[in-house]
Specification:
single chain; alpha/beta; Alpha/beta knot; 2 domains; seven-stranded parallel sheet; 9 helices; binds S-adenosyl-L-homocysteine
Length: 230
């Protein structure tokens, strides 16, 4: 699995650098590189870093983009703008998928807040990657672009949400028991008219509830039982 490196070219806003570090940290990434930042890192950068302060503290600074990506097997340039001439264009999801298959360091390269990436920076990379935003407003804030990229990289590596507590699933017999109870209640209460399609209706209804649990069926049956007793 590739080691992911986030490279910020000539970042100027301290808050963005800190927020980018935090964005990386939340998605499990730690290798941050700054290429010719406008100024040395200052306490201001930490304002937005919060839990990413360690990522910020260990960030390495390089004089050139070439130096920052020299040992990478691939570099992906992020830009909102399509260019007449560019390396291979990919959407972010495709780029993240490709990066996940490379078993070596891979860089995702971001441009300066005001000017974006220069042509030289773009052509130092093998791929041009777009976050397919609204064409009328396609430019994301730098740190927010880093967040979206880190998220897609994490998803491409198979991230999942924690599973819900496993409960015993309802069986066919449980459901048949429920249907019988429903029918009994509907008949006894006079709700079920002759020729009624109720039976088909509730089978149809419950067929649209995947993963029904035995306990849930038992609650409904218990309720019907207590209602019909009275
Ligand atoms: N005004 C600049 C945009 C800078 S935004 C320009 O026109 O290029 C800062 C950086 O965030 C960009 O250089 C790029 O690396 C990244 N970014 C912002 N929006 C993006 C998008 N929709 N797709 C890919 N990268 C984006």
């Amino acid at each position: 699995m590739s080691a992911i490196r986030i490279v910020l070219c000539r970042p100027s806003h301290p808050g963005n650098i800190g927020a980018a570090a935090r964005a990386m940290k939340t998605m499990g990434l730690t290798d941050l590189r700054l290429v010719a930042p406008a100024r040395a890192l200052a306490p201001k950068d930490e304002w937005m870093a919060t839990h990413g302060a360690d990522v910020l503290a260990s960030a390495r600074t390089h004089a050139t983009l070439a130096a920052a990506i020299a040992d990478c097997a691939a570099a992906f340039a992020l830009s909102a703008r399509a260019r007449e001439w560019s390396p291979q264009v990919l959407d972010l999801r495709a780029a993240a998928g490709r990066a996940a298959t490379i078993d070596a360091p891979v860089a995702f390269v971001f441009g300066n807040e005001a000017a974006g990436l220069t042509n030289d920076e773009l052509f130092a990379c093998q791929h041009l990657v777009h976050i397919p935003a609204d064409p009328e407003n396609s430019s994301l804030n730098l740190a927010q672009a880093v967040q979206v990229v880190c998220y897609e990289l994490r998803m491409a590596r198979g991230a999942t949400v924690p599973a819900m507590r496993a409960e015993m699933p309802a069986t066919v017999a449980d459901l048949e028991g429920l249907y019988a109870h429903l029918e009994e209640a509907a008949r006894e209460s006079g709700f079920m008219a002759p020729g009624s399609k109720l039976r088909e209706r509730w089978r149809r209804l419950f067929s649209r509830v995947p993963g029904l649990e035995r306990e849930e069926v038992n609650i409904l049956r218990g309720l019907l039982k207590s209602l019909t007793k009275k």
